[in-house]
């Protein structure tokens, strides 16, 4: 049986495109960006450690600097804001804060909290740094996709940018040693239609067993 996907969610998913040309005069209030980020962080995360953080760049002069770091991609400078998604390699160090909040909000009891904290503190420090970076990158992908859809639902457009100098970014924004940049998300109002894109046939990418 074939089902037609016509809900509002599916419309948002289909309408979201990567915009290259933004209206440089469009602005988005800090409070609205904060609301979008709060919703985005409902996304799943490994062990609920939420190994992400964000830098929201709205200052025009700082965006010009960032545009150079991002290989002069014009959407960086013309967007209303650029949201840098960072990975936190040592996110496990906040496990007690996170799971204490879980108890306070009624999601679990003290015994589960204590077992989870003990297990996390026993396991995560032994995981190699590269593996913890991979965990953070995976979580960043989840929260970033959620942010793209939320922005579109609110009438804004986005472009994800992976092609930037991550070393220079870390230096310019004084990232601590346990954080690293993963992706930039340009956010604003499109000034020109985005290009569509094709996808490979499903039978080339899926196996049903």
UniProtKB/TrEMBL annotation:
Keyword Oxidoreductase: yes
Classification via InterPro entries: Nitroreductase, Nitroreductase-like
Ranges where the Nitroreductase domain occurs: 14-189
Cited Pfam families: Nitroreductase
Domain of life: Bacteria
Keywords of the record: Oxidoreductase
Keyword Oxidoreductase: yes
PANTHER family, alphabetized: NAD(P)H NITROREDUCTASE YDGI-RELATED (PTHR43673), NAD(P)H NITROREDUCTASE YODC-RELATED (PTHR43673:SF3)
Family named by the database record: Belongs to the nitroreductase family.
Protein's name according to its UniProt entry: Nitroreductase
Species for this entry: Sporosarcina psychrophila
């Amino acid at each position: 049986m074939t089902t037609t996907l016509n809900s509002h969610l599916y419309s948002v998913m289909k309408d979201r495109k990567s915009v290259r040309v933004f209206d440089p005069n469009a602005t988005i209030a800090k409070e609205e960006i904060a609301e979008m980020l709060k919703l985005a962080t409902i996304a799943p995360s490994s062990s609920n450690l939420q190994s992400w953080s964000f830098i929201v760049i709205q200052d025009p002069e700082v965006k010009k600097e960032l545009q150079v770091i991002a290989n002069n991609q014009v959407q960086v400078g013309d967007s209303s804001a650029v949201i840098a998604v960072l990975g936190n390699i040592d996110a496990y160090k906040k496990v007690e804060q996170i799971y204490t909040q879980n108890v306070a909000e009624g999601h679990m009891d003290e015994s589960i909290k204590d077992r989870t904290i003990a297990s996390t503190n026993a396991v995560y420090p032994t995981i190699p740094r590269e593996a913890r970076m991979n965990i953070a990158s995976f979580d960043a992908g989840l929260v970033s996709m959620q942010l793209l859809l939320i922005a579109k639902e609110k009438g804004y457009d986005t472009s994800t940018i992976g092609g930037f100098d991550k070393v220079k970014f870390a230096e310019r924004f004084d990232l601590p040693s346990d954080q690293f940049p993963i992706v930039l998300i340009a956010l604003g109002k499109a000034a020109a239609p985005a290009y569509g894109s094709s996808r490979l046939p499903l039978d080339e990418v899926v196996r049903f067993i």
